[in-house]
Amino acid sequence: MLNQEANRELFEEQVEIIFKAFNEESFSHQGKHYTLPPRVPYRGYELEKLTLVPRPIHRPVECWQPIVSANPRGLDFMVRHGIKGAVGGGAATMQAGPITGYREAAARAGKELALGEDLQLGLHFHLGKTREQAIREITPIYEEHVKMFAPRGFVPGLTADQIAAVARRGGWAAAGVPTVEHYMDLGSWFAGTPGQLVDRLKGFEERYPGMQHISLSNPIGTPEAVMLEQFQWLAEEVMPAFKAPRR
User: Fold this and answer.
1) What is the CB-side half-sphere exposure of residue 89 using CA atoms within 13 A?
2) Where are the domains of the chain?
3) pLDDT digit string, tens, across residues 37-82
């Protein structure tokens, strides 16, 4: 389990098998880790093919996978299987490393993509009547997020001392733990008015002309009632700015 190269090799072969099962009427597989069907007697003969029942109605099956490191091997694997990428926010996103990396992987496979095509961006958001109100309301939610995810390495840029500090009551500022405004500047969090969110998303639209999907979410820990209110607000005052014009 600690051998990451072996883990990746096993994972890649498993994905190969899954896509064969999805997309082929019947299939067989001979790899390093799996032989399908197994070479054992079956009702008096050796089975040569397997069939997935029921098979997906819509093929090829659309598959999405998070992009974290933008490792060329992983991106090449995704493109080879037509796997689309979900890119989280943060410094890597705003530097477009995973986004340009995915397009470069597609080019290596002979596929020309517009920047952002077959990808989506993820953004934590919180709306308010003013930017200041939104920041004030999202700050305690952000702090709970950091408490949960920093020890697991999912809050980028924190030092070991800062990760230790988030587990204590108080002292975050003295330890230099980034505020939510820091991650707002990087682009992974948003707090502001509906109009400001429209402007942010329009900026993504201009920067990544091939991108058609944005994943907007409230951070874990947001109360249910607040989530419902936020998405109602989003639907009424943000989404209409991106509806396709009527013919």
Assistant:
1) 23
2) 1-59, 122-195+214-237
3) 998 888 888 899 999 999 899 888 999 998 877 889 999 999 999 9
